[in-house]
Amino acid sequence: xxxxxxxxxxxxxxxxxxxxxxxxxxxxxxxxxxxxxxxxxxxxxxxxxxxxxxxxxxxxxxxxxxxxxxxxxxxxxxxxxxxxxxxxxxxxxxxxxxxxxxxxxxxxxxxxxxxxxxxxxxxxxxxxxxxxxxxxxxxxxxxxxxxxxxxxxxxxxxxxxxxxxxxxxxxxxxxxxxxxxxxxxxxxxxxxxxxxxxxxxxxxxxxxxxxxxxxxxxxxxxxxxxxxxxxxxxxxxxxxxxxxxxxxxxxxxxxxxxxxxxxxxxxxxxxxxxxxxxxxxxxxxxxxxxxxxxxxxxxxxxxxxxxxxxxxx
Amino acid sequence: xxxxxxxxxxxxxxxxxxxxxxxxxxxxxxxxxxxxxxxxxxxxxxxxxxxxxxxxxxxxxxxxxxxxxxxxxxxxxxxxxxxxxxxxxxxxxxxxxxxxxxxxxxxxxxxxxxxxxxxxxxxxxxxxxxxxxxxxxxxxxxxxxxxxxxxxxxxxxxxxxxxxxxxxxxxxxxxxxxxxxxxxxxxxxxxxxxxxxxxxxxxxxxxxxxxxxxxxxxxxxxxxxxxxxxxxxxxxxxxxxxxxxxxxxxxxxxxxxxxxxxxxxxxxxxxxxxxxxxxxxxxxxxxxxxxxxxxxxxxxxxxxxxxxxxxxx
Amino acid sequence: xxxxxxxxxxxxxxxxxxxxxxxxxxxxxxxxxxxxxxxxxxxxxxxxxxxxxxxxxxxxxxxxxxxxxxxxxxxxxxxxxxxxxxxxxxxxxxxxxxxxxxxxxxxxxxxxxxxxxxxxxxxxxxxxxxxxxxxxxxxxxxxxxxxxxxxxxxxxxxxxxxxxxxxxxxxxxxxxxxxxxxxxxxxxxxxxxxxxxxxxxxxxxxxxxxxxxxxxxxxxxxxxxxxxxxxxxxxxxxxxxxxxxxxxxxxxxxxxxxxxxxxxxxxxxxxxxxxxxxxxxxxxxxxxxxxxxxxxxxxxxxxxxxxxxxxxx
Amino acid sequence: xxxxxxxxxxxxxxxxxxxxxxxxxxxxxxxxxxxxxxxxxxxxxxxxxxxxxxxxxxxxxxxxxxxxxxxxxxxxxxxxxxxxxxxxxxxxxxxxxxxxxxxxxxxxxxxxxxxxxxxxxxxxxxxxxxxxxxxxxxxxxxxxxxxxxxxxxxxxxxxxxxxxxxxxxxxxxxxxxxxxxxxxxxxxxxxxxxxxxxxxxxxxxxxxxxxxxxxxxxxxxxxxxxxxxxxxxxxxxxxxxxxxxxxxxxxxxxxxxxxxxxxxxxxxxxxxxxxxxxxxxxxxxxxxxxxxxxxxxxxxxxxxxxxxxxxxx
Amino acid sequence: xxxxxxxxxxxxxxxxxxxxxxxxxxxxxxxxxxxxxxxxxxxxxxxxxxxxxxxxxxxxxxxxxxxxxxxxxxxxxxxxxxxxxxxxxxxxxxxxxxxxxxxxxxxxxxxxxxxxxxxxxxxxxxxxxxxxxxxxxxxxxxxxxxxxxxxxxxxxxxxxxxxxxxxxxxxxxxxxxxxxxxxxxxxxxxxxxxxxxxxxxxxxxxxxxxxxxxxxxxxxxxxxxxxxxxxxxxxxxxxxxxxxxxxxxxxxxxxxxxxxxxxxxxxxxxxxxxxxxxxxxxxxxxxxxxxxxxxxxxxxxxxxxxxxxxxxx
Amino acid sequence: xxxxxxxxxxxxxxxxxxxxxxxxxxxxxxxxxxxxxxxxxxxxxxxxxxxxxxxxxxxxxxxxxxxxxxxxxxxxxxxxxxxxxxxxxxxxxxxxxxxxxxxxxxxxxxxxxxxxxxxxxxxxxxxxxxxxxxxxxxxxxxxxxxxxxxxxxxxxxxxxxxxxxxxxxxxxxxxxxxxxxxxxxxxxxxxxxxxxxxxxxxxxxxxxxxxxxxxxxxxxxxxxxxxxxxxxxxxxxxxxxxxxxxxxxxxxxxxxxxxxxxxxxxxxxxxxxxxxxxxxxxxxxxxxxxxxxxxxxxxxxxxxxxxxxxxxx
Lengths: 313, 313, 313, 313, 313, 313
Hints:
Six copies of one chain form a homohexamer. By secondary structure, chain A is an alpha+beta fold. Chain A folds into two domains: about 5-95, CATH 2.40.50.140; about 100-290, Hypothetical protein af1432. The first copy, chain A, is built from ten helices and seven strands. Chain A has helices spanning about 105-120, 125-135, 135-145, 160-175, 185-190, 195-200, 210-215, 215-230, 240-250, 265-290; strands at about 10-25, 30-40, 45-50, 65-75, 75-85, 295-300, 305-310. In chain A, strands 1-2-3-5-4 form a five-stranded mixed β-barrel. The radius of gyration of chain A is 23 Å and the shape is elongated. The two termini of chain A are about 35 Å apart. Chains in contact: A-B, A-C, A-E, A-F, B-C, B-D, B-E, C-D, C-F, D-E, D-F, E-F. The interface between A and E is large, with 46 and 46 residues. Chains A, B, C, D, E, F: It holds the Pfam family HD. Chains A, B, C, D, E, F: Keywords: Hydrolase. Chains A, B, C, D, E, F: It comes from Anaerosporobacter mobilis DSM 15930. Chains A, B, C, D, E, F: GO terms for molecular function: hydrolase activity. Chains A, B, C, D, E, F: This is 3'-5' exoribonuclease.
C-alpha cells in the first residue's frame, strides 16, 4: 500500500483510503465540488473532487473509498486531485492499514490481565470482574480493539488494554508493598476505571467523542455500567459496591479534573496515582518517540507545562 | 413540652428528647459514665449519666429517651445531670418536636409541583416524571419529608419540596421568557436535580451524610436513579435520556463544585442558574431571619465571602 | 442595497458602505495606497484603493462612503478593488443598514420598562428613576439606541433596552417570590446596573470601547452617574443611596470579574443572578441561532468552557 | 494614668477609659448586668457591672467613662469588677491616651507633602491638589488625624499621612529615575490614592469600617470625590481626569484585590508598586517591632504566607 | 519506664523525660515559676515548677531531666507539679524511649538500598552514590536516624530510610516496566531526592525545622550538596550533572509546591510520581492506623481534602 | 552597513549577517537546499540557498557569513535568495551591528555600581561582593556584556548591568528610608539577584536559554555560585550566608514564579519589590518606546493583562 506519509508531489495514485470527512461545497463561481479528508494509519491528506462527473460514485464519510488522481501542492501542502472514486469492497483493503495500533501484542497483554484476575479471592468482586473480562465475548472484543483516548496517550488500537494493564500492574505492586490495601478491591477498580471509554469514544477508525461521551463522560458511564451488573449478583455487599464505585468516580483525583468526589479510601488514592503515573509516563514516551530529529530539547508541552528534553543514555 | 432553648440553671426536668449521640466513657478515677447529646427542634444539650444505677435503662443513640434530672452549669454552659432514663414509647412524644420544619405548607407546595407536571406534553418525560411524583407512594412520602441539605439552606423537613418547587418555578419562568428552551426537558431536570439527596442525606431526625452520600454524592446517585427508571419506559429516546442526565450531572455548573461535566445545553445552563438563584436567596433569607438582634451588619458569611447587611425597608 | 454577505467574485459594485477603518500604506515598490475596512450590518469587507487618482475624493474612517469598483479574490477571501470613492450624502443611505439591530420592538420593550417603573412606591427611588427614564429625553434616546456589549451578547442596537428589561423582569419575579427583598431597591438597581455602558461603549455604528470605558469601566461610571443625580434630590436617604450604589458596584458578583465589592445585600445577590441568567441565556441563544448548519454539536465556546449542543425539540 | 497593660490582679482602680462596646445581658438567674470592653492606647480590658445600683450612671458605647472598681481574674484573664461608673468630662482625660499614634511628627510629615506639592507645574493637577491639601482646612485636619487601616499597617493616628508620604516619596524617586513618567500625574495619584479611607474608616478612637466603607470601599469613594472637585475646575482636561481616576481605581493592581481595572498607564503601574512597597515594608516593620521576645523566628504571618525572621545586624 | 500516655491523675512520679521547652514566667502576684513541656515517644505533658527552691537544679530545654512530682488535673488536662528536678545522666535513660521510631528494621531497609545501589552500572553515578551511601560513615549514621518530615508522613526515626527506600523501589519498578527511562539516573535521583532533609530538619529528639531549612529548604540544600560532591569526581559529565540536579530540583512536581522547575525529563516525571505515591499512601496508612476507634469514617483530612474512610476487608 | 529593517524588494545585496540558524532541507522534487535565518540588531530575515554550487562555502549556524544575493518577496514577506556565501573574517564586520544594545553608557553604569559597593561596611559581604565585581576580570567582562532576559525587558547587551543597577539603587533608597533594613545585606542581595542569568542565557549574539538555564534556572544557579565563593571566605557567618542565599532564592516573591521559598526577611521583601518595580517599569518603557505609531492605545499586553495606553504629557 502507498502510505500517506510517503506521497510525493506529482505522483499518480490509485489506492484505497478511509474518507474521514466529506463536505459538499461551491466554488466562488457557483460550481459544486467535494472537499475530503483521507486517512490511513500514517496520517491524513486533503483531497478535492473538482468535477462531479460520471467517474464519481456515491460514498459517504467513514467509507473506505478507492480513488484515482494526482498529488499536487497548494500553499506548501500536498493535496490530492481526484479523478475517479468509488467505495472499496471489504477484502480489497486491510482495515489495520487505517488505524494506529499498539506496538505490543494485544492478546499477550490481555492474558496478563486474565492472570491477575485469576488470583482474586473475593467471591463478589471475582464474579463481577469475570462477568466482564471472561464471560462477555462482545465486551472482550470491544475492549481489546479500543483506544484509551482520542489523542494524548494510548490513542491507538489496543490502547485501552495497554493502559488498563499498566495501571493494574502498578496497583498490584502497591497492594504488595503497602499494608492495609484491599488487593481485590484495588485490582477491580483498576480494571474498571476506564470502562466508560468504550462508550465515550467511538471505535476505530473514527475514534472520536460520542454524544454519550460529551454529555455524560466516561467516569459516569463506567460507574453506572458496573453498578448495573452488580445488581445482578446476589448479595453483593452494599458497602463493597459503594467502595468500588467510589474508586471509579474519584479516579481523576481532583474535582476540577472531572471526578465528582475526591478519593476517600486508600484504594482510591492508590488508583489515582497508578492511573496518573501510567498516563504521564506513556505521554512522555510518545513525545520522545515522536520527535522528528535528534535534538535534545523537544519544545514546549502543555500537559507538562515545560520544554521536554531527552536524557543521556 | 419543655424546649431546650428555654431551659434554666437549677431547674428539675422530666421530659423526652432525641438522643443524638451516646458515648461510654471513664472518669480519671476509672468509673464509667455516659456522655450524651440530646436534641429537639430548638437546639442541643449536653447531658451526663454519672451513676449507672438501676434507674438507667438500656437505650441507644437515635432513640427517643425520657429523662429525669437537673440542669447544672459547667464552664458557662448548661448541662443536664441525668438521674433516670428510659426509652420513650411511640405516642408519648410528637416527632415533629424534634425536627426543624419548613414554615410553608408541604401539601400545598407539593400540589403546585403536581400542577406544573400536569402541563407537560412530551409523553416520555411525562411518563418518567409521573412514575416518581404521582405513582410512587414511597418516593412521594420520602420526598415530602426530606431536607435539601444538612445545613446551609433548606436544612429542614419539607426543604426538598420547597427547594425543588422554587427551582422548578424559576425554570418555568425561563422557559416562558426565553426562546429555544425545551420546557418539558427543563422542568423534568428541575424536578430531578436534587433527587439524589434522598440517599445522600439520611432522613430526620438524623439528617446526616450517609455512606452513599459521602462516597458517591447526590449528583451521581440521582442521575443513576433516573437512568434506571428510563430503562423501564419503552422507546424512551436515547438522545433525550442523555440530555436529561446531562442536565442533572452538570447542575452544579463547575467541575470544582462536583459536576463531572460543564453545562452544554441551554436547559443545563438555565437549570444551574435557577438552582443557584433559589439556593443563594434562601441562604440569605435564613441569615437575615436567623440574626439575633436588630443590628444592620450581621457579620461575615463564608458562602458570600462578605459581611452581610440588612437593607432598608 | 447590495449587502456584504451576498457579494460574489467578479461582480461590479456601486454602493455606499461605512468605512470602519482607513490606513494609508506603501507598496514594496514605494507607491501609496489605501487599505480600508468596509462594514454593513451583515459583515465586513477588505477594500483597496491602489490608484490615488482624481476619482478618489477625501474621506475618513467612520464616514459613509460611496464606492465604485470590482470584487476580486485574494487568498480565498473576497476583496474590493476601488476605482472611485466619495463621501455619501445623508439621505443617500439608510443608517439602519449599517448596524445590527434587535429583532424585537424597541418602543414596546421601553414601554414595558415604563410600566414597571410606574408601580414603584418609594418616593426617592421613584424620583431618581423617573429623572432618567421619563424626564431626560437625551438619555432616553441614547438608551434606546445603545448596545449592551461590544460583542458576546446583546451587541446590537436596542441591546441595552433588551438586556435591561430582561434583568428587570427577572428581578420583579424574584421580588414577588422571595420574602425580605426590597422591590423598589432591586428594580432601581436592575434599571441602572448597566447605565455606565452608555459611556463605556461608543454608539453605533462604531460600538467600540471608549477611553472612559477602558480606563474607568461601566461599573464605576454608572455608579458615579447615579450618585451625581442623587445629590440633586433633597433628603435622599444616605443609607438608601449606599445600598443602591452597592448593588451597581457589586453586580458582577466577584472581584475578579471587576466588581470592587462582593454582594452584601439580598438585593445585590438577586441582581447578580438576574444579570448572569439573562446574559448567559442570551449568549446561548445567539450561539444556537448563529450556527450555520444543522449539526447537533456546535463546537467549543470559551464562555461556557464546553462544547455546545442543540437539545431535542 | 494607669494604663491597661500595667494592671495587676487585686488592684483597686479609679480611672477613665474609653468604653468601646457595652452589652446589656442577663445572668442565668435572670438578673441584668452590663458587659463592657474598655480601651486605652495600650490595649483592651473586659469589665462587668454586676449591680445596676445608684452608683451606675447613664453612659453609652464610645463614651469616655470614669470607673471605680477592682481587678479580678477569670479563667487566667484579668477582668474589671465595676462598682461605680459615670461619663467623664472633657478635660478630665487626654484623648491621646486612648488612641495609638505614629511615632513620627505629623506636622513635619505634612510639611514634606506640601514641599512636594509646591514643585508641581501642571496647572490643573496643581489646582486640584491644592484645593484639598492647602485650601480645605477640614480635610487637612481629618487627613492628619486619620489612620490608613483598621489593622495590618499604619493603623494609628497619623497613619494616613505617614503612608501617603511614604508612597509619594517612592513615586518621586520613580519619576526621577525612569523616563516617560508624567511626574505631576503620578504625584497627584499618590496623594489621592487612599483619600477614600477618610470615609471608609471612622476616625479614632473608633477606627472601624463605616457603612460607606463596607458597601462602597475606599477605591470607589476616593475616585468619586476627586471627580467631584475636578468638575469645579474650569477646563480640566477630560483625558487627564480619566488618567488620574484610572490610577486611583487601579492602585490595588489586581481585580481580586478590589481594583475594578488593571493598571494601563505607566503611572498606574508605578503607583501600585509604590503603594505595595510602602505597605509591605511597614507591615514587616510592625511585625519586627511588635515581637515580644528576642527570638529570631517570629512565627507565621498570613500576609507574607511565611514564617518571619529577624535578620542579622 | 512510666510512659506519658499511661499517666493518671493523682499519681506520684519519679522519672526522666525530655524537656522539649522551658519558659521562665511570673504569676500575677509577681512570683517566678517555670512552665515546661516534657516529651517521650508516646506524647507530651505540661509541667510546672512553682517553687524554685533548692531541689531545683540547673537545666535547659532539650535536656533529659529527672523529675519528682505529682500528676494533677487542670481544665480536664493532666499536668505535672514538679517538686525536684535535675539533669539526667547518660546511661540513666534510653534515648529511644523519647523518639517515635519506625516499626520496620532500619538495617534491613538500608541493606535493601545497598542492594539496589550495587546494580548500578554508570561509573559516574555509581561513584557519586557510593561516596554517600557506602563511604561516608557520618552520612550513613545520620541518614539512618533521620525522619523524613516534622509531621505528616514518616515523621519518626528511620523515616528517611523508609521513605527513600519506598520511592527508590517504585522507581526500580518504573525503570523495569517503562522504556526510555535511564535506570541509573532515576535510581540516583530517588536516593538523593530528600537528601536535604538532613539539614532542613534537626535530628531527634528535636526534629524541628532548622534555620537552613526555613530559609533555604531541602530542595535547594540537597541539590547543592550533590553538586559539591560531583565537582570532586573527575570527568563527571556536565549533562548528567544537570539532569540529576534537575530531577532533585523538580521533584515536588509543581512550582507552587516549592520546586523551582517543572519536570522536563522522563526520569523527573517518574520521580515526582514515585515520591507522591509513597508519601500519600504512607499518610493514608498513618491516618488509618492512628484512628482511635473502629468507626468507618475517620473525619476530614486537609491533605486529601476529604473525609477519610476505612475500606472493607 | 545595509540593515535588515531597510531592505527593499528587488535589491541586490552583498553584506555580512549573523546566521542565527541553518537547516538542510529537500524540495518536494528531492533537491537539497539550505533555509537560513539571518540576523542583525534591527531584526531577522529568511534566506534560501537553492543551488548548492561552488560559490557556496562551508559555514554553520552562529557564524557571521558574507552573502551575495537578491531580495525577493514570498507571501508578502521579504526573502533573500542567496547566490554566494562564505564565512566573514573577524575585522570585516562590527559585532555590535548584530546585537541590540542598551542606550545608556555601560561603563558609567558599572561605575555607579562600584560606588555603591565602596560604601559597604560589613567586612564579609564587602569581601564577597568585591571578589566578584572588583577582582574577577572574567566575571566583570561577562557581566557588562550580558542581557537580563531573552525577551520581555532588558533583553540587550548591557541589560544585566542596567537592571542590576536599577534594582540596587531602589534598594539603596529603601535602606535609607525604612528602618530595620540591613543595608549591606540588601545591597549584596540586589547585586547578586540575577547573577545566575550569566549561565541561564547564552551570551550575545545567541542570547538564548542554555541547558543549565532550562534544567536548573538562574535562581538556583546564582545561589549556588554565591555559596561556592562564600565557602572560600574565612569565618563568613553561617547566619549571614543563609540570609543572603534566602534573599536570592526568594526574590521572585511567589512559589509559582519559581522561587522555592517565600520572603521571610525584610530585606527579601524589599528585594522582591525592587526587582519587580524595575522590571515592570522597564517593560512598560519598552512597550511605549516600541509602539510604531502615535495612537494612544497600544493594544493588549499579556504581562500587564490590560490594554496599554500612553498618558498625557
